[in-house]
Structure formats: structure tokens, C-alpha cells
Amino acid sequence: MPTVSVHFDPGVASVSDGMADFAAALADLIERRLAVARDKIQIMPVALAQTPVGRAVAIELKARDTDARDDKLLQDFVAAVDALSREKLGVICRIRYLRTTETAIVAAN
Q: For the chain, which domains are there?
């Protein structure tokens, strides 16, 4: 169920050019590190209409909180997302990982 919103400034060439590779590599990382089936991962790149205040890219990840995803695993995962985004997008991104409880989710498809 992990959903990832990647809000980005389309005027930054390295970000626009690297987004497809970043999204594919991020899906691989989520699959491996968070033990999620590929068909359950949703990554949504969102090109902003205006230049953002702050970082050129903001990455927000939301996923169910599980016992297997302890603080250490998530800190390592966020560090890996940071390294991946620097490599593929060429910028330092604002990254947030939000844990959700099973009872907080109502979903379809």
C-alpha cells in the first residue's frame, strides 16, 4: 500500500530528466526494503505549476505501520531514498515518511 508523492519543480532540468529513472529505482527500493509487492506500490510524480518555496523536490511516503518496520529500518530506508534522489535527480530533496495505522485507512483498488 505504500503511496509516494513526489512534488517537483519541472523547471529544474536534472529533476525532470531523471524522474522516470528515479521512480523505477524507488519502486525497487520499496519492494526490497519494505517487503512490499510491486503491484501494491503507487508512485505519483506531480509537476508543480509554480516554483516551490524551499526544496525543488518534496517526497512524501505513506505506508502502513508494521512491527517489521521499526525505527532503524525506516531511518535506513529514508537515508537510502535520500541517496537515490541525489543520484537520480541531482538535488537535495525534502523527504518525509509517514506511518499509517490499519484502522486509519479506507481504500479501494
A: 3-104 (3.30.429.10)
